[in-house]
Amino acid sequence: MLPALRMRPRSVRTVRLGSILTTLGLLISIVVGVLVYGQVSAAQRVLSSVPATQVVVAATDIAPHTEIAASMLTVTNVSDTLMQAGAVTRVEDVAGKFTPDGFARGEVITSRRLGPVELKNNPSYTIADGKVMYVMPVSFTGQPLSIAQVNALRPGDRVDLLYTTIDAPQDLTPDQRDQVKADPIPYLQTRIMLQDLQIQQIGSFAADGSLVPATSASGTSVASANIIFVVTPEEALVLKWLKDAATFYRDSNVEMVLRAPTDNQLADSNLVVNFNYMQQKYNLAPPPQVAANTPH
User: Fold this and answer.
1) Average pLDDT value for the chain
2) Based on the domain organization, do 107 and 237 belong to the same domain?
3) How far is residue 108's CA from residue 74's CA, in Å, rounded to a whole number?
Protein backbone atom coordinates (compact mmCIF):
# COMPACT_ATOMS: atom_id res chain seq x y z
CA MET A 1 0.00 0.00 0.00
CA LEU A 2 2.87 2.39 0.60
CA PRO A 3 4.02 2.63 -3.08
CA ALA A 4 0.44 3.55 -4.19
CA LEU A 5 0.24 6.32 -1.60
CA ARG A 6 3.51 7.80 -2.83
CA MET A 7 2.21 8.13 -6.50
CA ARG A 8 -0.96 10.04 -5.57
CA PRO A 9 0.58 13.53 -5.07
CA ARG A 10 2.20 13.38 -8.54
CA SER A 11 -1.17 12.62 -10.19
CA VAL A 12 -2.77 15.55 -8.39
CA ARG A 13 -0.02 17.87 -9.61
CA THR A 14 -0.52 16.63 -13.19
CA VAL A 15 -4.26 17.30 -13.06
CA ARG A 16 -3.70 20.77 -11.65
CA LEU A 17 -1.16 21.61 -14.37
CA GLY A 18 -3.59 20.46 -17.10
CA SER A 19 -6.35 22.62 -15.63
CA ILE A 20 -4.06 25.65 -15.57
CA LEU A 21 -3.03 25.14 -19.17
CA THR A 22 -6.64 24.69 -20.27
CA THR A 23 -7.69 27.84 -18.42
CA LEU A 24 -4.77 29.75 -19.93
CA GLY A 25 -5.74 28.54 -23.43
CA LEU A 26 -9.32 29.70 -22.91
CA LEU A 27 -8.14 33.09 -21.70
CA ILE A 28 -5.89 33.45 -24.79
CA SER A 29 -8.78 32.47 -27.05
CA ILE A 30 -11.02 35.06 -25.41
CA VAL A 31 -8.37 37.76 -25.76
CA VAL A 32 -7.81 36.89 -29.46
CA GLY A 33 -11.57 36.87 -30.10
CA VAL A 34 -11.95 40.27 -28.46
CA LEU A 35 -9.10 41.66 -30.59
CA VAL A 36 -10.54 40.23 -33.81
CA TYR A 37 -13.98 41.52 -32.99
CA GLY A 38 -12.56 44.92 -32.31
CA GLN A 39 -10.71 44.97 -35.61
CA VAL A 40 -13.77 43.81 -37.56
CA SER A 41 -15.94 46.39 -35.83
CA ALA A 42 -13.40 49.08 -36.61
CA ALA A 43 -13.29 48.03 -40.26
CA GLN A 44 -17.08 48.07 -40.43
CA ARG A 45 -17.13 51.54 -38.87
CA VAL A 46 -14.63 52.71 -41.50
CA LEU A 47 -16.70 51.19 -44.31
CA SER A 48 -19.90 52.66 -42.97
CA SER A 49 -18.23 56.07 -42.77
CA VAL A 50 -17.34 55.98 -46.50
CA PRO A 51 -20.12 57.62 -48.53
CA ALA A 52 -21.90 55.09 -50.78
CA THR A 53 -24.76 55.23 -53.25
CA GLN A 54 -27.22 52.59 -54.35
CA VAL A 55 -26.85 51.95 -58.08
CA VAL A 56 -28.56 49.72 -60.62
CA VAL A 57 -26.53 46.84 -62.07
CA ALA A 58 -27.26 44.12 -64.59
CA ALA A 59 -28.50 40.96 -62.86
CA THR A 60 -27.76 38.96 -66.00
CA ASP A 61 -26.05 39.48 -69.35
CA ILE A 62 -28.12 41.92 -71.41
CA ALA A 63 -27.63 41.50 -75.15
CA PRO A 64 -27.13 44.47 -77.48
CA HIS A 65 -30.25 45.97 -79.10
CA THR A 66 -32.43 44.78 -76.22
CA GLU A 67 -35.35 46.37 -74.41
CA ILE A 68 -34.42 46.12 -70.72
CA ALA A 69 -36.92 44.55 -68.30
CA ALA A 70 -36.93 45.06 -64.52
CA SER A 71 -36.17 41.34 -64.05
CA MET A 72 -32.80 41.90 -65.75
CA LEU A 73 -31.74 44.37 -63.04
CA THR A 74 -30.72 44.51 -59.39
CA VAL A 75 -29.31 47.15 -57.04
CA THR A 76 -26.14 47.35 -54.99
CA ASN A 77 -24.17 49.90 -52.98
CA VAL A 78 -21.09 51.42 -54.56
CA SER A 79 -18.61 53.72 -52.86
CA ASP A 80 -18.90 57.28 -54.08
CA THR A 81 -15.20 57.20 -54.91
CA LEU A 82 -15.90 54.37 -57.36
CA MET A 83 -19.12 55.79 -58.76
CA GLN A 84 -19.24 55.89 -62.56
CA ALA A 85 -20.43 59.00 -64.35
CA GLY A 86 -24.09 58.69 -65.29
CA ALA A 87 -24.74 55.64 -63.07
CA VAL A 88 -28.48 55.03 -62.70
CA THR A 89 -29.80 54.81 -59.13
CA ARG A 90 -33.39 53.63 -59.68
CA VAL A 91 -34.63 50.52 -61.45
CA GLU A 92 -37.66 52.36 -62.81
CA ASP A 93 -35.32 54.71 -64.69
CA VAL A 94 -33.88 51.75 -66.63
CA ALA A 95 -36.76 49.32 -67.12
CA GLY A 96 -38.35 49.82 -70.52
CA LYS A 97 -35.29 51.56 -71.98
CA PHE A 98 -33.25 50.32 -74.92
CA THR A 99 -29.55 49.48 -74.90
CA PRO A 100 -27.70 49.59 -78.24
CA ASP A 101 -24.54 47.83 -77.02
CA GLY A 102 -25.66 45.68 -74.05
CA PHE A 103 -24.37 45.14 -70.51
CA ALA A 104 -22.43 42.33 -68.86
CA ARG A 105 -23.72 40.72 -65.66
CA GLY A 106 -22.74 42.85 -62.65
CA GLU A 107 -22.01 45.92 -64.77
CA VAL A 108 -23.26 49.27 -63.53
CA ILE A 109 -26.02 50.68 -65.75
CA THR A 110 -25.13 54.14 -67.02
CA SER A 111 -27.55 56.56 -68.65
CA ARG A 112 -25.22 57.33 -71.54
CA ARG A 113 -25.64 53.75 -72.76
CA LEU A 114 -29.44 53.85 -72.73
CA GLY A 115 -31.97 55.19 -75.20
CA PRO A 116 -35.73 55.43 -75.66
CA VAL A 117 -37.32 52.27 -77.03
CA GLU A 118 -38.83 54.23 -79.91
CA LEU A 119 -35.31 54.95 -81.17
CA LYS A 120 -34.11 51.35 -81.17
CA ASN A 121 -34.60 51.07 -84.94
CA ASN A 122 -32.48 54.12 -85.65
CA PRO A 123 -29.72 53.04 -88.07
CA SER A 124 -27.11 54.86 -85.99
CA TYR A 125 -27.71 52.48 -83.07
CA THR A 126 -26.35 49.61 -85.18
CA ILE A 127 -22.94 51.25 -85.67
CA ALA A 128 -20.09 50.30 -83.35
CA ASP A 129 -17.73 52.93 -81.99
CA GLY A 130 -14.99 53.79 -84.48
CA LYS A 131 -17.07 52.70 -87.48
CA VAL A 132 -19.25 54.57 -89.97
CA MET A 133 -22.06 53.56 -92.28
CA TYR A 134 -21.39 53.79 -96.01
CA VAL A 135 -24.02 53.14 -98.67
CA MET A 136 -22.96 51.94 -102.11
CA PRO A 137 -25.61 51.72 -104.82
CA VAL A 138 -25.44 48.42 -106.67
CA SER A 139 -25.79 50.24 -109.99
CA PHE A 140 -23.55 53.28 -109.39
CA THR A 141 -21.83 52.82 -112.76
CA GLY A 142 -25.07 52.54 -114.71
CA GLN A 143 -24.88 48.75 -114.70
CA PRO A 144 -25.40 46.63 -111.57
CA LEU A 145 -22.45 44.75 -110.13
CA SER A 146 -22.32 41.29 -111.64
CA ILE A 147 -22.49 39.60 -108.24
CA ALA A 148 -25.78 41.45 -107.62
CA GLN A 149 -27.18 40.56 -111.01
CA VAL A 150 -27.27 36.90 -110.00
CA ASN A 151 -28.85 37.80 -106.62
CA ALA A 152 -25.95 36.25 -104.68
CA LEU A 153 -25.56 38.91 -101.96
CA ARG A 154 -27.16 38.66 -98.51
CA PRO A 155 -26.89 40.69 -95.29
CA GLY A 156 -23.92 39.44 -93.30
CA ASP A 157 -21.96 38.36 -96.40
CA ARG A 158 -18.32 39.41 -96.67
CA VAL A 159 -16.89 40.63 -99.95
CA ASP A 160 -13.70 41.89 -101.61
CA LEU A 161 -13.60 44.80 -104.04
CA LEU A 162 -11.62 44.54 -107.27
CA TYR A 163 -10.61 47.64 -109.21
CA THR A 164 -9.53 47.83 -112.86
CA THR A 165 -7.94 50.87 -114.52
CA ILE A 166 -6.23 51.66 -117.82
CA ASP A 167 -2.61 52.30 -116.97
CA ALA A 168 -1.32 53.90 -120.16
CA PRO A 169 1.96 55.88 -120.34
CA GLN A 170 1.59 59.59 -119.70
CA ASP A 171 3.61 60.70 -122.76
CA LEU A 172 1.35 59.19 -125.42
CA THR A 173 0.37 61.29 -128.43
CA PRO A 174 -3.33 62.00 -129.05
CA ASP A 175 -3.37 59.36 -131.77
CA GLN A 176 -1.82 56.81 -129.42
CA ARG A 177 -4.37 57.65 -126.72
CA ASP A 178 -7.16 57.06 -129.20
CA GLN A 179 -5.54 53.73 -130.04
CA VAL A 180 -5.42 52.82 -126.34
CA LYS A 181 -9.10 53.65 -125.94
CA ALA A 182 -9.89 51.51 -128.97
CA ASP A 183 -7.90 48.57 -127.62
CA PRO A 184 -7.06 49.00 -123.90
CA ILE A 185 -6.27 45.35 -123.16
CA PRO A 186 -2.46 45.77 -122.97
CA TYR A 187 -2.92 48.53 -120.39
CA LEU A 188 -5.56 47.04 -118.10
CA GLN A 189 -4.54 46.64 -114.44
CA THR A 190 -6.68 44.87 -111.86
CA ARG A 191 -5.98 44.70 -108.13
CA ILE A 192 -7.76 43.98 -104.85
CA MET A 193 -8.54 47.31 -103.22
CA LEU A 194 -10.50 46.24 -100.12
CA GLN A 195 -10.89 42.83 -98.50
CA ASP A 196 -13.27 41.17 -96.07
CA LEU A 197 -15.91 43.91 -96.00
CA GLN A 198 -19.09 42.82 -94.27
CA ILE A 199 -22.44 43.74 -95.75
CA GLN A 200 -24.72 44.89 -92.98
CA GLN A 201 -27.90 45.20 -95.01
CA ILE A 202 -29.18 45.36 -98.58
CA GLY A 203 -32.07 47.75 -99.11
CA SER A 204 -33.10 51.05 -97.52
CA PHE A 205 -34.48 52.35 -94.24
CA ALA A 206 -38.07 53.42 -93.67
CA ALA A 207 -39.07 56.57 -91.78
CA ASP A 208 -39.30 54.64 -88.49
CA GLY A 209 -35.77 53.28 -88.97
CA SER A 210 -36.83 49.77 -89.91
CA LEU A 211 -35.17 48.15 -92.91
CA VAL A 212 -36.96 47.76 -96.21
CA PRO A 213 -35.05 44.85 -97.74
CA ALA A 214 -34.44 44.56 -101.44
CA THR A 215 -36.80 41.77 -102.45
CA SER A 216 -39.29 41.21 -105.18
CA ALA A 217 -42.04 41.59 -102.57
CA SER A 218 -40.85 45.11 -101.70
CA GLY A 219 -40.71 46.07 -105.33
CA THR A 220 -36.96 46.66 -105.22
CA SER A 221 -34.59 44.12 -106.73
CA VAL A 222 -31.06 43.61 -105.48
CA ALA A 223 -29.75 44.82 -108.84
CA SER A 224 -31.19 48.29 -108.20
CA ALA A 225 -30.77 48.38 -104.41
CA ASN A 226 -28.20 49.82 -102.01
CA ILE A 227 -25.49 47.84 -100.24
CA ILE A 228 -25.05 49.11 -96.67
CA PHE A 229 -21.60 48.66 -95.17
CA VAL A 230 -20.36 49.45 -91.65
CA VAL A 231 -16.65 50.13 -92.08
CA THR A 232 -13.76 52.15 -90.69
CA PRO A 233 -13.52 55.79 -91.78
CA GLU A 234 -10.53 54.95 -93.97
CA GLU A 235 -12.43 52.16 -95.72
CA ALA A 236 -15.32 54.57 -96.28
CA LEU A 237 -12.94 57.00 -97.98
CA VAL A 238 -11.65 54.24 -100.26
CA LEU A 239 -15.21 53.16 -101.13
CA LYS A 240 -16.14 56.76 -101.89
CA TRP A 241 -13.10 57.22 -104.13
CA LEU A 242 -13.76 53.98 -106.03
CA LYS A 243 -17.40 54.88 -106.58
CA ASP A 244 -16.52 58.38 -107.79
CA ALA A 245 -13.76 57.10 -110.05
CA ALA A 246 -16.05 54.54 -111.65
CA THR A 247 -18.87 57.11 -111.95
CA PHE A 248 -16.93 60.06 -113.37
CA TYR A 249 -14.12 58.29 -115.18
CA ARG A 250 -15.39 55.54 -117.40
CA ASP A 251 -11.86 54.15 -117.80
CA SER A 252 -12.14 52.48 -114.36
CA ASN A 253 -14.30 49.63 -113.18
CA VAL A 254 -15.26 48.15 -109.81
CA GLU A 255 -16.39 44.59 -109.18
CA MET A 256 -17.27 42.69 -106.05
CA VAL A 257 -16.45 39.07 -105.21
CA LEU A 258 -18.16 37.02 -102.53
CA ARG A 259 -16.24 35.23 -99.76
CA ALA A 260 -17.04 31.93 -98.09
CA PRO A 261 -18.60 32.43 -94.62
CA THR A 262 -15.56 30.96 -92.84
CA ASP A 263 -12.83 32.47 -95.04
CA ASN A 264 -10.69 34.96 -93.09
CA GLN A 265 -7.56 34.77 -95.22
CA LEU A 266 -6.35 37.95 -96.90
CA ALA A 267 -4.77 37.90 -100.34
CA ASP A 268 -1.64 39.82 -101.28
CA SER A 269 -2.90 43.38 -101.71
CA ASN A 270 0.21 44.23 -103.78
CA LEU A 271 -0.68 41.71 -106.49
CA VAL A 272 -1.47 43.41 -109.79
CA VAL A 273 -2.85 41.51 -112.75
CA ASN A 274 -1.93 43.26 -116.02
CA PHE A 275 -1.05 42.20 -119.53
CA ASN A 276 2.54 41.34 -118.60
CA TYR A 277 1.27 39.08 -115.80
CA MET A 278 -1.18 37.34 -118.16
CA GLN A 279 1.44 37.05 -120.91
CA GLN A 280 4.03 35.47 -118.61
CA LYS A 281 1.60 33.16 -116.82
CA TYR A 282 -0.52 32.12 -119.80
CA ASN A 283 1.83 32.85 -122.72
CA LEU A 284 -0.53 35.33 -124.32
CA ALA A 285 0.65 37.13 -127.45
CA PRO A 286 0.25 40.93 -127.42
CA PRO A 287 -2.13 42.46 -129.94
CA PRO A 288 0.06 43.36 -132.94
CA GLN A 289 -1.33 46.88 -133.39
CA VAL A 290 -0.18 47.99 -129.93
CA ALA A 291 2.82 45.71 -129.45
CA ALA A 292 5.22 48.64 -129.65
CA ASN A 293 3.46 50.45 -126.82
CA THR A 294 2.99 47.48 -124.51
CA PRO A 295 4.39 48.31 -121.03
CA HIS A 296 7.21 46.16 -119.62
Assistant:
1) 82
2) no
3) 10
Tell me the C-alpha distance between 45 and 262, whole Å. Answer: 58
Q: How far apart are CA 237 and CA 252, in angstroms?
A: 17
- The CATH code of the domain that includes 108 is 3.90.1210.10
The pLDDT assigned to 219 comes to 53
- Residue 134: phi and psi, rounded to 5, are -130, 135
* 41-58 pLDDT, tens digit each: 665 665 555 567 889 999
Q: Look at residue 283 and give its three-state secondary structure.
A: coil
DSSP secondary structure code for residue 40 in this structure: H
Task: Identify whether 45 is part of a domain.
Answer: no
Pick the more confident residue, 241 or 6: 241
pLDDT reading at 99 higher than 70: yes
Question: How far apart are the C-alpha atoms of 251 and 180, rounded to whole Å?
Answer: 11
Residue 46 lies in a domain: no
Q: 157-176, pLDDT tens digit by residue?
A: 999 999 998 888 888 888 88
Return the bridge partners of 80, or none: none
Considering the domain architecture, whether residues 131 and 278 belong to the same structural domain is answered as yes
What residue type is assigned to position 166 of the chain?
I
φ and ψ at residue 5, rounded to 5 degrees = -65, -35
Rounded-to-integer distance, Cα 98 and Cα 29, Å = 57
